[in-house]
Specification:
The complex is a heterodimer.
Chain A lengths: L11 H6 L3 E5 L8 E7 H7 L6 E6 L4 E5 L9 E6 L2 E2 L9 E3 L11 H6 L4 E7 L1
Antiparallel strand pairs in A: 1-2, 2-5, 3-4, 3-8, 5-6, 5-7
Chain B lengths: L1 H46 L6 H28 L13 H26 L1 H7 L7 H11 L1 H5 L2 H96 L3 E5 L5 E4 L1 H7 L15 E5 L2 E4 L2 H7 L5 E9 L5 E13 L2 E10 L1 H51 L6 H30 L7 E4 H19 L2 E4 L7 E4 L1 H17 L5 E9 L2 E8 L6 H6 L8 H5 L8 H11 L3 E7 L3 E9 L2 E2 L20 E5 L3 H13 L3 E5 L2 H10 L4 E5 L7 H10 L8 E6 L4 H9 L4 E4 L4 H15 L12
Parallel strand pairs in B: 9-11, 16-17, 16-18, 18-19, 19-20
Antiparallel strand pairs in B: 1-2, 1-7, 3-4, 3-5, 5-6, 6-7, 8-10, 10-15, 11-12, 12-14, 13-14
Helix pairs in contact in B: 1-7, 2-3, 2-7, 5-7, 10-11, 11-16, 12-13, 13-16, 18-19
The chains are: A alpha+beta, B alpha+beta.
Chain lengths: 128, 754
């Protein structure tokens, strides 16, 4: 274990100040189409100047996954903070949920993508 | 033909096999396309997973349930050790308990979220709400969600409710286990089904592909073998075709291909040359225009039906027709032909050979054989007739000479001499006849028309035959009312013909009558010689104008003759543009009729001939007699010496030339055919060298007679010609002419009066 170089906390307001992306898609975990609003992962990573390496995402239940930074694309995942116009609570998979536009392409319908679609996200760390 | 049929049958089975394989291939393709669609669908399903990791998600439910249960237990334990002051519900809780409750609430939220997710996700809800599971999951969900008011409520309320919660959770725990076990099995089964489904489709696809591969392989092999067979056959056909083409074009015989309507479809170069056809007009030309045959009414064009008909029984060879080329000239041809029945269309293939040369040589051969046979027959007949006819007068001569030699009655001498002369004359006539017919047959009869007195001619003929008629007991007379007068024609030839007819009539009649009748109609004069003799049959009548024909009657009656007379008469009549014919009946008599164009002319004053009875002699001459035959020399010498001439003899031409160089002669009598040097050569020698006899009159003596001989001798320098045998009268006449030409006429000599 190495200690992190820097720890940055972000409030919801700060997150909402970043470029907003919104799309509608269905998911395998919900009923009917859902409208998600958030920030593109690429925009978020650019905001922090992260261009390579691996992103470790961890949920409230300590579920965590490692995602390569370069796997995020311009048409890909967002870090959603609103679902159907509502902020998300822990009971409704909040506060943050990495969501892909599953309906837009079959490439977003694989088990890897589903695994990456981490909800109840509350921590994120980048390693080179 | 049969080999080809087998081959084509082989082709048929191949085609059927191909069609079968094609059908199989098609079916396989359809099946494969169907299966591929299925596979693509399945692959699509596989590519886009309908679910996340099921095992994980399901196990997370239990994990999160247990985490919640643990957090409840932990909070309960803490609440026992740090009891909440009853009176001050709002008092701050002990720090560990507060943290524990926060953790409990978080765990509750996470569990709540998990339950929500599972019930909302279609994939899971289908299994979890399966009726066979009862309403276990619903119960669980309702139970957990039922805690929400306490969780969201005050800490004290939550602490109070924890016991109930604890009990409920413990109670529902086995049910959760059942739910998860069942779901796990269900999902495994589903996964199995999906996998097996794909495997099944892939297996079917593999089968179909194998069959397709097999069919395609079989087709490839079949195609390959077919291609090889076809290629081989094509090569064979090309080779055969090239050979046939060479045969076709190089054949010296014409080769024609005709369709059933008899129209020309193809022809080789030999045919083009033979019939002089140009390449453009070959196609469609009717056979009748260049192949003909002899019909009832001349030449007919051959029709296609004729030709096909003659090949009905198979190939036909040696079929003779007449070919006709562009210029219309015909030539004999021989056809070999057969019908080629290919592809349902009968075509006639004819090989045509021009047999002009063959036919010509056949005809020539036949003609020369006939000629040779005829020649042989003629020779045999001639020898037979001549030897017989010569024997008779020779017998007369030799017999009489014997009588004269033995007897001494000089009184009978003149009688004997008469017999000898007559016999010799008969012999001479015989020889003349033979020469005549030879000449007539070898060349055209020379007709020399001149005015002559016809009445005189007829009288002469009758006069000459009267003695014989009397001997035979016949009356010989002339009928015909009016005199014929003068006419233009060849008197000598006419005399020959009429004398022959009259003489024949007299010979073949005994104690009957012979009548010579003559009538003029315009320019044509008809002479009829009628007798009441033995007559002859119709068949005999047809033959009598041929040469050397002696009828049985003549032989039986011992009538003399060469059988040439009528043949000569016919030739002469034809040459004079007249006709001769005969009518006869056996036992009744015969009538010969001669019609000749003899235009009448004015009477010409007759030039009186030298009176035959007057014996004239030339004045004595010096004569050189060049003659190789001692007998002829002796006879001539005696004849000349009797008339008072002096005769010097030379036995050949060379000797004659020598004598002529030494002494002058008034006349030289020169035999033509001699040993050492012949007459022509000798004459030339005498004429060439200056000597006493260079310009002496030279008279040829020759056994060869004829105008052409005379001309030839005159050309060689001979002045005149005497035909052998030498008759005293002729000799005297010539000597007179010679002496009168050489010197002015002697006053005492008599001349033909004008």
């Amino acid at each position: 274990m190495t200690l992190p170089d820097a720890v940055v906390g972000m409030t919801m307001d700060e997150l909402e100040a970043l470029p907003v992306t919104e799309f509608e898609t269905s998911t395998i975990w919900t009923e009917g189409p859902q409208v998600f609003r958030g920030v593109r992962m690429v925009d978020l990573l650019a905001h922090f100047g992260i261009e390579s390496g691996t992103l470790k995402l961890t949920a409230a239940n300590d579920y965590s996954i490692d995602v390569p930074v370069d796997s995020f694309t311009d048409d890909g995942a967002i870090l959603a903070y609103q679902r159907n116009g509502q902020t998300m609570t822990l009971r409704t998979k909040g506060p943050l949920w990495v969501v892909y536009p599953y309906d837009s392409s079959p490439k977003f319908q694989s088990e890897v993508i589903y695994s990456n679609s981490i909800w109840q996200l509350d921590r994120m760390s980048a390693t080179e | 033909m049969s080999r080809l049929a087998i081959n084509s049958a082989g082709m048929d089975t191949s085609v059927i096999r191909l069609a079968l394989l094609g059908t199989i291939t098609g079916l396989c393709l359809v099946v494969i396309v169907y299966l591929l669609t299925d596979v693509r669908q399945k692959l699509g399903e596989l590519a886009s997973s309908p679910t996340d990791n099921i095992q994980w998600t399901l196990s997370q439910l239990e994990v999160e349930f247990l985490e919640f249960q643990l957090s409840v237990q932990a909070a309960k334990l803490l609440s026992r050790t740090n009891p909440l002051p009853i009176d001050s519900p709002n008092a701050d809780l002990a720090e560990p308990l507060s943290q524990s409750l926060t953790h409990l609430r978080k765990r509750y939220d996470i569990l709540y979220s998990r339950l929500d997710t599972l019930s909302q996700a279609e994939h899971y809800s289908n299994v979890l709400f399966n009726p066979s599971l009862g309403d276990d999951f619903g119960t669980l969900q309702r139970l957990v969600k039922g805690f929400a008011p306490q969780i969201d409520g005050s800490d004290a309320g939550l602490i109070d409710a924890m016991d109930t919660m604890q009990r409920a959770l413990t109670q529902v725990r086995p049910s959760l286990r059942d739910i998860l076990s069942y779901s796990n099995l269900e999902f495994v089964a589903q996964s199995d089904i999906a996998r097996l489904d794909v495997a099944h489709v892939l297996k079917r696809l593999a089968w179909a592909s194998s069959v397709l591969l097999g069919a395609l392989t079989a087709m490839v092999i079949l195609f390959r073998s077919l291609a090889q067979v076809s290629k081989k056959r094509l090569q064979q056909k090309l080779a055969a075709s090239a050979r046939l083409e060479t045969i076709f074009s190089t054949s010296r015989d014409a080769i024609l291909v005709l369709d059933p309507r008899g129209r020309l479809r193809d022809a080789n170069r030999a045919a083009e040359e033979m019939f002089q056809l140009s390449e453009g007009e070959i196609d469609g030309l009717p056979a009748g225009t260049f192949l003909r045959r002899e019909g009832a009414s001349g030449l007919l064009g051959v029709s296609g039906a004729d030709l096909f008909q003659s090949c009905a029984q198979g190939p036909k060879t040696g079929y003779r027709l007449l070919g006709r080329d562009r210029t219309g000239s015909s030539f004999p041809v021989e056809l070999s032909m057969d019908v080629s029945n290919r592809a349902g269309i009968a075509m006639l293939v004819c090989v045509v050979r021009d047999i002009s040369h063959q036919v010509a040589s056949e005809a020539e051969l036949t003609a020369s054989r006939d000629q040779a046979l005829a020649g042989e027959r003629a020779k045999a007949r001639f020898l037979g007739v001549i030897s017989h006819e010569m024997r008779t007068p020779l017998n007369g001569i030799l017999g009489t000479i014997d009588l004269m030699a033995e007897g001494d009655e000089s009184a009978e001498t003149s009688t004997y001499l008469n017999v000898v002369r007559t016999s010799a004359q008969t012999l001479l006539d015989l020889v003349n006849d033979v020469l005549d017919i030879t000449q007539i047959e070898n060349s055209d009869v020379l007709i020399k028309p001149a005015p002559f007195d016809m009445d005189q001619l007829l009288q002469d003929i009758l006069a000459s035959e009267t003695p014989r008629a009397r001997t035979q007991g016949n009356s010989l007379r002339q009928s015909g009312a009016s005199p014929l007068g003068w006419a233009i024609g060849d008197a000598t030839r006419l005399r020959q013909v009429l004398l022959n007819l009259v003489s024949n009539a007299v010979k073949f009649t005994r104690n009957g009558s012979v009548t010579l009748d003559s009538q003029r109609q315009g320019d044509t004069v008809t002479f009829s010689v009628h007798d009441t003799g033995i007559g002859m049959s119709a068949e005999e009548s047809e033959r009598i104008f041929e040469d050397f024909v002696r009828l049985d009657g003549a032989i039986a009656l011992q009538i003399q003759g060469t059988g040439l007379g009528l043949g000569i008469s016919r030739h002469i009549t034809t040459a004079m543009r007249g006709t001769i014919c005969v009518q006869s009946e056996v036992g009744l008599g015969t009538t010969f009729q001669v019609r000749l164009p003899l235009p009448a002319v004015q009477q010409i004053h007759p030039v009186r001939d030298v009176d035959q009875d007057d014996i004239l002699t030339a004045p004595p001459q010096r004569i050189l007699l060049v003659e190789d035959n001692p007998t002829n020399r002796f006879v001539a010498r005696r004849m000349l010496e009797r008339d008072g001439h002096s005769v010097t003899e030379a036995e050949n031409g060379k000797r004659g030339v020598e004598l002529a160089q030494k002494a002058p002669f008034d006349i030289i009598l020169m035999d033509v055919s001699m040993p050492v040097m012949d007459g022509v050569e000798a004459t030339a020698a005498i004429r060439a060298s200056p000597g006493p006899c260079q310009h002496t009159r030279i008279i040829a003596l020759t056994a060869h007679v004829g105008d052409d001989v005379t001309e030839r001798l005159q050309a060689a320098g001979l002045d005149d010609v005497i035909a052998k045998p030498i008759r005293i009268r002729v000799l005297r006449q010539l000597l007179i002419e010679a002496s009168s030409a050489a010197a002015p006429p002697t006053p005492g000599a008599r001349h033909p009066a004008s």
